[in-house]
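Record type: monomer structure entry
Structure origin: computed from sequence
Chain ID: A
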Amino acid sequence: MQRILAVLAVLLALIRPGLGAAPDTFTVHLTEITDLKAVFATVESRNVVPARTRIGGTITSLSVNYGDEVKKGQVIAVVTDHKLVLQRDSLAAEITGLRAQVAQAQVDLARAQTLVGQGAVSRQQYDRARTALDVAQSALRARIEQRAVVEQQLKEGEVLAPTSGRVLNVPYTTGTVVSTGDTVATVAEQDFVLRLEVPERETRFLKAGDLVRVDEAELGHAGVAFGKITLVYPEVRNGRVFADATASGLGTYFVGERVLVWIPADRRPAYIIPSDFIETLFGIDYVRLERPNAGVVPSAGVIMIPIQRGEPHPTPAMPGGIEVLSGLRTGDVLVRP
């Protein structure tokens, strides 16, 4: 008796929703789906760029360490060549002396100009004074330019980040002597990609633009993320083909970390419906149809039919998509429970 009452209660619960407002519906149709295959991908940077020195000398400042985030143009180290400092000081002293010579030459020229007008000196002496002023001014300009070159060399002692990203390697420490062109740090560009390793036999289904699925548990939170294949490398190495895919949320990964990714393996037609249209009663999955068919419980034009549930097939348009193996046909209109 108790079992009969429980069944009646379940039937009343099934009938009651049909008496209220019209629920949401979903029209069943065949959809071409892609069977997925799990492969491993490695988080890689599109470009790994070395930050090189532009002059030789001693590292007097190093402001980055392994794993630090840097911006393009940021000063990450300073290389100092003490000989350049001495050259700059020497040129500064020469410039001071040459400015005094220019001032004296200007006085001599002014005096010669006055005297030549009075006829006290020859024109040749006036020309000699003017030439001395030109020579002194030229020497002063040359020394100023030489000092600018040395100051530019000192400024080039600053090692700049070549791109925005994460520092992977810092082989030197403060006080290390380096030469021109030595790599002070290696920076991985922040635009990370998933580098897939796909078995050679699966590559006939792989092409640029295909969607790939990444379980967001791999990204550190629940859900499913979708990426897109951007490049398939035209080379087979050890029976594998490599491809690059983009996906959101890769900025928190370690470069070189391995991630499980689902890639397209084959295509076939199937019925996909939202998971919230499926009810499970006594271990059997049911859906509600809006039109009469071979069903179980008729109620206000809504009937229940059993179905065979397949594997989940989430898509960007239907994150909770479930494949239905049997029980439905094209044109069936499902009612949300």
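Annotation 1: The mean pLDDT is 80.
Annotation 2: The longest helix spans residues 82-118.
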